[in-house]
């Protein structure tokens, strides 16, 4: 540990050769592939590890974990769960707006959780319950279906009860007692009865890190997590002790961990060095920390700009800005895994319970990588839908581009879809995404009354089916909404998208009948509907008082549904209903509305039914 001038030539990190480690990982892979559990015994013997009769943690072990924890410990863990969950949910990208780069070409993305994930939780000498939380909670938030945990057991062959208690609270039961490279190899290949996963997460020692790199040609990995590191910046005497303890805190993770302390004062750096030596002797893991003290670099900087340059050059995993003038640095920091501002924001907060993730890029990878987040557990799937106008606009251009590349089949795939003499299609597809609902809808005005409708509200589905049958519209609609909260959002948004998609299908509304008047009877009920597809919104709806619910449909939403539908389709509609049975009253309304639509949308090539020449 010595003081270095910022203008001196030095290396931020000492990268030891990993060739030997890589060869060992390859050897372990071959042993496990060829000999499975017998191979594991060979590896355990070499590493002086205990052989276990079963790798998977039993339900009994998980359920009994609670009695080994105090209420104080459980309360602290609950606080961590709450905060990490809050941050994870705020990160999750679920709202994807549909864009139209050209009129009629809809493009959107859907975020899909990775199906199966393997999470490595370091253990052995220290039960890293925080690493369990930092990986499991984002996986749950993202919606991953299969979560597999691998963590090395303690010397007694058991997993620390805090990890098992958390597994019970978060309903994760695929926990295996295995660590090191052999755990990573098993997650990647399905060795030893451990499920093969699609992506592997988690920090670990050199063997774990190299094993992740080794298997990355067959499964995805989160990031290369090397030795832990921290950079501390202070220019104030009053923060000397904090600078020293912050540097030491990351050395607890291993003898290859490193720390950097930056200051414009050489005197402060000397005092920090003295404090580090003093504090290191007082810590319970001093035998591990003291050999790592030589990995601490004290760097004398000449100015604030010099400090910024040092930070961005190093790209530290953790960056602590101890002094209260930290705001002057913030906008210039581009390369850091996670930044802790002010003396009341210790790295330990991020390590345990503030909510940010502590799985961060090390070894300078913060220049290009971010820390772990819920979005590492999802993938994007892109979608696009082109209507006739967009197809006609793009097709010739795409054919030209395919000719430049001499890819004939590409061009032919467009040419075979071209039909200059085809009639105009009166169909459209729309997608609506909000925080409460996700809805897809397509409509063909010149259909046969076909339907495939699922809103999650059975009676509403039934009514929309009646509308299809009587209007001859073909409608496909899928709605996923927060029905566990309330039916309101799904009902309202279904009306919105139906109105919008039919309006888009009508296009300019030229050459249609426009007007329709229909009467339909159903047992004791009768409905009269008059509509004008004039692009002016007006609704008059008279219907007797209804029961509170018909099936699973809250009838208070009927008026709102019809009103929302009218406003988004933009037409005038007068509805009069008489009768006594609530089911019949609503059903006859939808049937009559459908029949009115059937007439009003019929093609009328003689003229635009407006003296203005446009609807």
Automatic annotation (TrEMBL):
Named cofactor requirement(s): Zn(2+)
Record GO biological process: L-histidine biosynthetic process
Keywords of the record: Amino-acid biosynthesis, Coiled coil, Cytoplasm, Histidine biosynthesis, Lyase, Metal-binding, Oxidoreductase, Zinc
GO MF term list: histidinol dehydrogenase activity; imidazoleglycerol-phosphate dehydratase activity; metal ion binding; NAD binding
Keyword Aminoacyl-tRNA synthetase in annotation: no
Highest rank taxon of the organism: Bacteria
Gene3D superfamilies: 1.20.5.1300, Imidazole glycerol phosphate dehydratase, domain 1, Nitrogenase molybdenum iron protein domain
Subcellular location per the Swiss-Prot or TrEMBL entry: Cytoplasm
Pfam families on file: Histidinol_dh (PF00815), IGPD (PF00475)
One GO term describing the cellular component: cytosol
Top EC group: lyase
Reaction catalyzed: D-erythro-1-(imidazol-4-yl)glycerol 3-phosphate = 3-(imidazol-4-yl)-2-oxopropyl phosphate + H2O
Parts forming coiled coils: 262-289
Main location as per UniProt: cytoplasm
Pathways involved: Amino-acid biosynthesis; L-histidine biosynthesis; L-histidine from 5-phospho-alpha-D-ribose 1-diphosphate: step 6/9
EC number(s) from the headed UniProt entry: 4.2.1.19
UniProt family annotation: Belongs to the imidazoleglycerol-phosphate dehydratase family.
UniProt-listed HAMAP family: HisB (MF_00076)
Protein name, UniProt field: Imidazoleglycerol-phosphate dehydratase
Gene name as annotated: hisD
């Amino acid at each position: 540990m010595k003081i270095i001038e910022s203008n001196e030539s030095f290396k931020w990190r000492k990268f030891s050769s990993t060739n030997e480690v890589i060869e060992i990982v390859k050897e372990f892979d071959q042993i496990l592939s060829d000999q499975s559990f017998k191979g594991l015994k060979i590896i355990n013997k070499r590493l002086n590890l205990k052989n276990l009769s079963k790798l998977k943690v039993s339900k009994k072990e998980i359920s009994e974990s609670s009695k080994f924890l105090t209420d104080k410990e459980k309360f602290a863990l609950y606080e961590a769960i709450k905060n990490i969950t809050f941050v994870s949910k705020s990160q999750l990208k679920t709202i994807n707006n549909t864009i139209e780069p050209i009129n009629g070409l809809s493009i959107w993305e859907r975020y899909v959780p990775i199906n199966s994930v393997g999470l490595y939780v370091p253990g052995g000498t220290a039960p890293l319950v925080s690493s369990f939380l930092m990986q499991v909670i984002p996986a749950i938030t993202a919606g991953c279906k299969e979560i597999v945990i691998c963590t090395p057991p303690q010397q007694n062959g058991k997993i620390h009860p805090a990890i098992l208690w958390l597994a019970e609270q978060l309903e994760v039961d695929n926990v295996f007692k295995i660590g090191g490279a052999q755990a990573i190899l098993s997650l990647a290949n399905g060795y030893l009865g451990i499920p093969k996963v699609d992506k592997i997460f988690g920090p670990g020692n050199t063997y774990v890190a190299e094993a992740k790199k080794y298997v990355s040609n067959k499964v995805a990995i989160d990031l290369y997590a090397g030795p832990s590191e921290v950079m501390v910046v202070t220019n104030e005497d009053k923060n000397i002790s904090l600078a020293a303890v912050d540097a030491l805190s990351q050395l607890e993770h291993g003898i290859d961990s490193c720390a950097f302390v930056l200051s414009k004062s050489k005197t402060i750096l000397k005092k920090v060095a003295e404090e580090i030596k003093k504090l290191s002797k007082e810590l319970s893991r001093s035998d591990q920390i003291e050999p790592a003290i030589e990995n601490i670099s004290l760097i004398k900087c000449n100015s604030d700009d010099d400090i910024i340059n040092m930070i961005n050059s190093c790209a530290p995993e953790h960056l602590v800005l101890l002094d209260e003038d930290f705001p002057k640095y913030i906008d210039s920091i581009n390369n850091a895994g996670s930044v802790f501002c002010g003396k009341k924001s210790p790295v330990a907060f991020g390590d345990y319970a503030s909510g940010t993730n502590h799985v961060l890029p090390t070894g300078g990878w913060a220049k290009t990588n971010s820390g772990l987040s819920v979005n590492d557990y999802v993938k994007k799937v892109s979608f696009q839908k082109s209507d006739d106008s967009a197809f006609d606009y793009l097709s010739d251009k795409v054919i030209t581009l395919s000719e430049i590349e001499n890819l004939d089949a590409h061009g032919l795939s467009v040419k075979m879809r071209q039909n200059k003499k085809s009639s105009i299609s009166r169909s459209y597809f729309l997608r609506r995404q909000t925080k409460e609902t996700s809805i897809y809808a397509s409509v063909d005005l010149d259909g046969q009354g076909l339907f495939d409708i699922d809103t999650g509200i059975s009676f509403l589905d039934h009514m929309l089916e009646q509308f299809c049958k009587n209007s001859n519209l073909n409608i496909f609609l899928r709605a996923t909404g927060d029905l566990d909260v309330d039916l309101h959002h799904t009902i309202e948004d279904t009306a919105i998208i139906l109105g919008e998609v039919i309006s888009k299908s009508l296009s300019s509304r030229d050459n249609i009948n426009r007007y329709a008047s229909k009467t339909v009877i159903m047992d004791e009920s009768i409905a009269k509907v008059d509509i004008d597809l004039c692009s002016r919104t007006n609704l008059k709806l008279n219907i007797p008082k209804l029961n509170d619910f018909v099936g699973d449909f809250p009838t208070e939403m009927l008026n709102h549904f019809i009103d929302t539908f009218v406003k988004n389709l933009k037409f005038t509609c007068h509805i009069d209903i008489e009768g006594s049975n609530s089911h019949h009253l609503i059903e006859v309304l939808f049937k009559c509305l459908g029949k009115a639509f059937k007439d009003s949308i019929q093609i009328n090539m003689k003229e635009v039914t407006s003296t203005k020449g446009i609807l």
